[in-house]
Every structure is written in structure tokens, then in C-alpha cells.
Amino acid sequence: MTKTHLEGQPRVLVVETDRPLAKLVALTLNHGLYETATATSVDEADRLLTAFKPHLLIVDVDVEREGALALLGTRAGRQRIPTIAFTRRGDLAVKLAAFQHGADDIVIVPFVPEELVARVLALMRRTYGDAVPFIPVIKVAGLEVDLLNQNVRMGEDRPRLTAIELALLYLLAANAGQVIGRDEILDSIWGADFVAESNVVDHHIKNLRLKLKDDPRRPRFIGTVAGKGYRFLGTPTA
Questions:
Q1: Residue 37 near residue 11 (C-beta atoms within 8 A)
Q2: pTM reported for the whole predicted model
Q3: Which residues partner with 13 through β-bridges?
Q4: 56/11 Cα distance (integer angstroms)
Q5: Where along the chain do its domains lie?
Q6: Thinking of the domain 137-232, which architecture would CATH place it in?
Q7: What pLDDT digit, counting tens, does each position of 185-238 carry?
Q8: In terms of Cα–Cα distance, which of 168, 148, 180 is closest to 210?
């Protein structure tokens, strides 16, 4: 297959009404040299397709279903824009509809960061060649997060994180300064259908804090907002 030449910095348009999830995607894409824009509606996406001229689309097909499906397979001139569809529903009907409308790949939400990075990288390579490098380590609020080895570099320390802890760190860091409720965390990390014990989020936050040497009484990274949830105290990227 003849690959299209990629001109300039690769641009990704994310069509997602869930703002915490959209910010998580944008932070995750820092593992490549992508410029990211977010549309929170199909109408806004239509405008950005012309103004932003993306090389890749990531579209949540669970919202504004018909309009979102119509975005899949969008063409820019003679070239069809490669597209990844997001869905929280894993049933065959949704997958078939997405592929029939032009999706190149499907990601089931929730996802772990390394899955999204791998799928975006594979699709960009299939379409444009080896044009976008993979950046295994990114800086997040003074932390060096190594996605490949799933650890955090803190001076001489290299605490290894579980997949859930890594996804939790990315979700909180991507939404730095914003309170993320326990229910939002559950939906984003475990999925809306997950039946969990009441303290599952608190348990994983506690473990993540221990690995980051983050004292909950005098936190550097993760603050507790009583009765509401948690807030990341640093900036998304340093």
C-alpha cells in the first residue's frame, strides 16, 4: 500500500464530550510528537476538520451516535483520514457499525495508556510510514513516567506501577487542578459496568501515594478533597 506523505507535525483531532477523558487522551499522546485538538460536539468537529486539518481522528461513537458515525471515514481531499473509534460498549453491533462507517480501529473505554499509544502508533505507521517517533518517557509535574517499563523516575528511585496505578496517575495528571470524583475515576479506569467495593478507588490511591512517597497530610502530587474526590496538584506536563 502506498503511504501518504506526512507534512509537518502530526495533528490529532479528538471528538469527545467527556472532558477528563479527552484530557487523558491528550496527555497520553505526549508519547509521540502529536499536536492535539479536542472537539466536544460533532458540529465543532466539522469546523475543526477544516481549520485544524488533522492527520488522525479519534471519535467517541457513543455520543451523538449518527453524527459521530458520519465522521468516521472522513476525507480530506483525496485522502481518507485514518480514524480510531472509542466506545464503552463492546457489543458486535457497535463494532460493525463503526467499521462499516470507516473506522480503522476500535478502542474500548476504559483503556490503559499503553494500549492507546500502541494503536495510534500502529495506525500512523500504516498510513504515513515511520514518521512519528515513540517517546517512552514523558515528564509529568516533576515526575518522569516511563510507559515502556511502567515505572516512575524519582531521583534514584524507580517505583514500578501496576497498569491500574499508571492509568490512575495519567487520569489525575491530565486533569491537574480539577477535582475528579470517585465515580468518575471508577468509570474512567474500571468502566461503568464494574461492580466494585466502596473503597476500591481509595485503596489504589493509597498504593499510588506510597509509591510516589506522597504524604496525604502534606501532599506534593495527589490531594484529597473531602466528600468529593481527588485533585492532582502539579501541572499536566513539565
A1: yes
A2: 0.89
A3: 37, 57
A4: 7
A5: 11-128, 137-232
A6: Orthogonal Bundle (1.10)
A7: 988 888 766 766 668 899 999 999 999 999 999 999 999 999 899 999 976 543
A8: 168
